Amino acid sequence: MSKKPLIVAVSGASGLIYAVRTLKYLLAADYHIELVASKSAQMVWLSEQNIRMPSEPIQQEEFWRQQAGVETAGKLRCHHSGDVGANIASGSFRTLGMIVIPCSMSTVAKIATGLSSDLLERAADVQLKEGRKLVIVPRETPFSVIHLRNLTTLAEAGVRIVPAIPAWYHNPQTIEDLVDFVVARALDQLDIDCIPLQRWEGRK
């Protein structure tokens, strides 16, 4: 396995279970994760789960491991969203790429226009300028024409866009099954295969 870290970014979109399940599988597979969550993600946690996400990185690491149910495996380092001097803000810090999961339309717009007002946006901008893999998992419906134009701009720049749209051919039995399908397909874009998934094999 590559020793390069993977950046996992969590924006303020609904569906934080996608981020939790992503961390669960990556950490269990012994990946090195550099994580940054936006300020809005803290508000979403409070709204969806009535849980307050810590703002300090050390406490965040414990928080995310607890949510993912992975206490010791892998390596997890969290960053404050306002720390634009962090390692992941520089192109000289080599990574496997970056995934933004879930990704709000506000974050999509800022990345598409090259804004870097916080660490999440700066890290995404760095992946683009360095020609590294960037995957976003937008969680919004319906899409406005502005959303679609911003997504098109990102796609034209080489970003892989994996909407949070699950499939049913693998016979999902739980919400987690539906979530894991999306997470697995998103990680496929980074050539990471660490989730047990019944893949389509054609008609029997």
SSE ordering: EHEHHEEHHEHEH
* SS summary, helix count: 7
CATH homologous superfamily heading: Flavin prenyltransferase-like
Q: Reading side by side through the largest sheet, how are the strands ordered?
A: 3-2-1-4-5-6
Which percent range fits the helix content?
Answer: 25-40%
- Computed structural class: alpha/beta
Counting DSSP E segments of at least 2 residues, the number of strands comes to 6
CATH architecture level-2 label: 3-Layer(aba) Sandwich
Q: Class, according to the CATH hierarchy?
A: Alpha Beta
Q: Which fold name corresponds to the CATH topology?
A: Rossmann fold
Average pLDDT works out at: 92
Span of the ends, CA to CA: 34 Å
Tell me what portion of residues adopts beta-strand conformation: 5-15%
Ordered list of secondary-structure elements with their pairings:
Elements: E1 6-10, H1 17-28, E2 32-37, H2 39-49, H3 57-68, E3 75-79, E4 97-103, H4 105-112, H5 119-129, E5 134-138, H6 145-156, E6 160-161, H7 175-188
Parallel strand pairs: 1-2, 1-4, 2-3, 4-5, 5-6
Helix pairs in contact: 1-3, 1-7, 4-6
